[in-house]
Each structure stands twice: as structure tokens, then as C-alpha cells.
Amino acid sequence: MTENNQHKKVRRYGMVIDLDKCTGCGACMVACYSENNVPFRTDETKKLDSLNWLRVFKVSNNKSFPDVDICHIPMPCMQCDGMHGHGHAPCVSVCPAVATDYDHETGIVSQIYTRCFGCRYCMAACPYHARTFNWWDPVWPADMKKSLNPSVSVRMRGVVEKCSFCFHRYQQAKEKAFVEERMQVEETEYQTACAEACPVKAITFGDLNNPDHKVHSLKKDKNAFRLLESLHTNPKVYYLTKRDWVRRQCDNIDSHTDIKE
Amino acid sequence: MTTSAIPSGVKRCSTAQFMLWITAIGAVLLWGVYAMGLIWWKGLNQTNMNDAYGFALWIWADLAVIALGGGAFFSGFLVYIIGKKELKNIINYAVVLGFICYSSALLILAIDIGQPLRGWFIFWHANVHSMLTEVAFCLSCYFLVLTIEYIPLILENPKIDRVPFLHHLGHNMHGIMAVFAAVGVFLSFFHQGSLGGVAGVLYGRPFAYRSGLLIWPWTFFLFTWSAAAVGPCFTILVTWLTEKITRKKLVKDSVYQLLAKISGWMLLTYIIAKIIDTWYWAAHTAPQFGFHLMDFYSNNPVYGIWILIAEILVCGVLPALVLITKKGRENGFLLISAAILAVIGICINRWVMVLQVMAVPLFPFHKWYMYSPSWQEVATTILPVAYGIILLSISYRYLPVFPQEKELNPV
Fold it and tell me: Considering only alpha carbons, which residue of chain A is nearest residue B133?
């Protein structure tokens, strides 16, 4: 079976985020909130209570001027393939009610809000803190209710939610391809909101298995790595940086190892 | 007559004194019920949990009471399967304690979930790969078994026993209790183990993750073993406390001695296994995931290496050594001190396997996640304690819980 034929069967959607390009502007977060009807509260000072599907972390090399350097790390759900790459992501196998599942067609880890009963075991299992809990019922300002995305269901208090790689966009692109009698969803037809919104094109999204997609070659870049790779979670989100200190901040094995500057 | 409900040949305090006691504990219970109502009405925003601390005080309390309630299944195993008839003199109390612990655990779970009305999804949409599913099934089934074990004791109340049907029902249930004890042991083995598995399978959390046998991490076996070891210590401790409060000798020393001896050897073997597990985890498992032992015990205000020493040496090795020696068991002070230490040890173990797991930072740029519970969390955690004291008080007053009481306290 050729690689192309294999691709027809198994897609593995993923991201490559260039940390050396990211300016930390937060446009990706805003786009994600808007696209996925992520609720917010008047007071968002307690960040560990905030709902967000994509967080931008700011890290520093802790040096003083003029050697100081900072890096912004956008962190969506890593859509892990799991320890042995069979879809047993840390969160999927622990959910007692199959409210989170691994889609073998796309490699995307789903969250079924109407199935979730809020035990939060998946949150405990996720090392990336990619999952957030609806501690409150969602409340939008009156005018904003009219601009909610009808393709994404809103969530209720007491359930967990997380980044879906804008899965509704994949469904729409697939339907369009089906109507046009095509088997393939083109790279440009399915893009996440964050990737589209990034003003410096730091986020590249596509099928990691498809040689025609940019992410396929980007993930093989010598500067590519994944977060907490030593945990064997097999994330589908890759990062690029030429800065060794940034890489050391992203995995404990690297942080324990002296990398020459 | 009020006294007609009290078993014959035993002395109890006056109704007024009893009501005063129940009212005082009832006030605490109501406080917990109020907090529980708030949580069910307003949601989990009433707690201090957050996205980093998805598991917190309640889950610890859940694991702790289930471990301490292990005295019921292990005593049942010793009496009905192994044939240690002497322990029949304490088995009733162990069953009542087990019933309280397991009903509390189920209540805590019902409070803890974000959508309580969907709690049944865990049975209906069961994910067979999840340890929590195994916990839910075994816990519910074992609670049924405990209820069946508790019913014959309730039927022995003099007023109820007067009804011929109920008298015969109780008698016949006693006759087949060995079957339920065996079922209870089987179910307990799995749910105690599954609770260990809940933490042990978290490979994204190297502090909790353990390798193991087939699908079961080592914590699966350690949790079962530790519950069997320390559950009887909790039974000893609560019986001793009941004796102090009622100012009566309720169980002969020989019963304490036998239970303490078995508990001591179980504790010793458990703690040896725990030490081996800790060494293997620190030397092999955690380093494979990029962590050194001291990464889990430094740079934070609470979780120093002291907690590991306290759990294994002070509250594990020390009480085990006391309990396996005849002199240690025969000395009342040492016996109770050892039981207290063992109970604290198991509570520390469950604490670190829940709360320290959440606290440990995984990224080098993350800080330790610290948490303190809200008053609603504290109140709902105390709620089962108050409920337990009330049920124990009622059971002691109206049921023949201690078969040796008449002999030890002739009226």
C-alpha cells in the first residue's frame, strides 16, 4: 500500500507552531473564543477558573538586560495519540462515560458535552491542562447572544470542555467535498480559527500524514519538538524554535540536561 | 415504653442525654447538609477547586473513608472465610463502620460531580477501560452487600424481632452471610484496587503513574493491601473510642489482640511492598518520564520529603513493628497509638495520591499548584463524619452490636 493510499484511510490533523514567530498578541485566543462560543465572566482575574481552549503562556530565560529573552507558547489541546499511538490519549482511556473519544478518521480527541457528567478525571489525567471546567453557567452579554456560532453547541455548568481543532469546520469541509464528489478535504478548506487569525502565520495546521500539507514537512524540521515529549503522550501539536532555552522549558528531560547555548 | 427498643440485659444512657448528644452532632450534620445544598444548587463554583485542581479534598475523603471502611470486608473475610470465630465479637461493628464509610463515599461522589443528575451515565455509558467505571460498579455492588450484611443486625432490635416474619428473615440471613462475605471480599478487592488504579494509570502524571501487572498498576494491589491492613486498625480505634465514650468494656482484649496481630502483619508486608514500589518508581519509572525524586518534594511550602518519611516510616514501619510484637499489642497505649499512626499513614497515602498529584508542576516554567478548600468543601467533608457518629450512636443504642457486652457489663 502506498503512503498516499494509506492517507486516504488515516488522517492525523495536527499543528506546527513557530515559537520564534509568535508575538503573544492573543489573536488566536480571541478567535477561538469567538469561533467556539467559549464563555467568559466579568471578572477573569482567577486564570485557573477561566475557560479557554487555547492559552498563551509567557516564559522567560530569567536573565537580566541585555540578555533577557521571552517566548510565548500558545497551547491548545495537544490531541494526543497516546502512549503507543493507538488513540489511548491520557484523557480518553480514563473517562468513565466515554464522554471523550479519539476519532480514528482524523486523530482528533472529541468532547461530548451532553455525555460528560463532570467527574473531571480527564482534567486530572491531562498533563497540559488543556481541559477546562464550566464552574459557572455561561452568560453572554445580550448582544453577543446574537453572534454565537450556530455550528458549535454551547455548554452548560458542570461539564468539561476543550479544544476540538474546530471540528465543526472539518465536518463542513467534508460535506462540501462530498457534494462536489471529492474524497479529499483540501488543506485550505479545513483550517482552525486560531491558525487563520494569527497575524504572523505562526500557526500552521493540516494533516500530518499528508505530504501535500505544510505541516507534514514542518514537523520534520530539525527545530521541531513537542511539549513534554518524555511523557509519551504523542501530541499532534509540534513547536518550532531555534532557542535552546525555550526547548528546555518545554520538557523536563531537556530541563535536566545541559544544552549548549 | 422507650426502653423496649433497647436490647435486653444492657444499660444505655437516658433518652434526654441521648437526644442532647444527637442534637449536638445533628447541628454539625445540618451545617454539612446546608453546604451540600449550596453546591447542588449553585454548582462547584462554591468550592476552591480550579482547572489545575480538578480532584481535591472530596476525592481524598472518598479514598480515605473507603480505605478505612476496609475493616468490614477484611474482618468478614477473616470470620467467614478463614474461620477466625473470635472476631465475630467485633464483626458487627466493622460492618456498621463499613456501611457508614461506603454510604459516605457514595454521597461524596454525588456531591463531587458537576452534573449530579447525570451520575447514572457512569453505568449506562460505561467505558470499560476506565478505572473509575470499575470503582463505580464495585462500590455500588459492595454497598448493596454491606446493606445486606447490616440488615440482620437491624432485625435483631427487640421491637423488630417481635415480628415473626422479620425474626425468621434475620435468622435465615445470618445463615447465608458467609456467601455475602465472600462476594464482599471479591468486590472489595476490585474497587479498593481500582481506586489505586485511578491514580496509577495517569501516565501524564509521573508522580502518580506506576508500571504494573497486565492492565493493573502496582497501586491497584497496594491500595487493596493497605485497606485490608489498616481497615481493622480503624475498627479497633473506633471500638476503643466507643468504649471511652460509653465508659464500658465492650470487646474482650483477646479480640483486640487477634485483630491487631493480623493487622500488624498485613501492615508490615504492605509497607515492605510500598517501600519496594517507591524505590522502583523513584529509580526507574519517574526518571523515564523526565523526573527526579526530589522534583516531587522540593520548592513548595507543603510537600517536602517529610511527607514520604511520615507515610512510610512513622506511620507505616513503626506501627507495624508495634502491632506484630506481643508486648506492643498488650500495652493499651502502644496498641492505640499504633492504630492511630496506621490510620494517619493511610490518610497521608490517599492524600498524596490525590492532592500532591495535582500539585506537582509538569513544565519547568510552571509553579506548584497549591490549594486550600472552601468552607463548603470542609462542611461537606465533615458531613459524613457527623452522619457516621449519629448512625453509630443509634446502632449502639438500639442494636446488639457487641455480643460480649452483657458478659463484660452485667446489669
Answer: A96
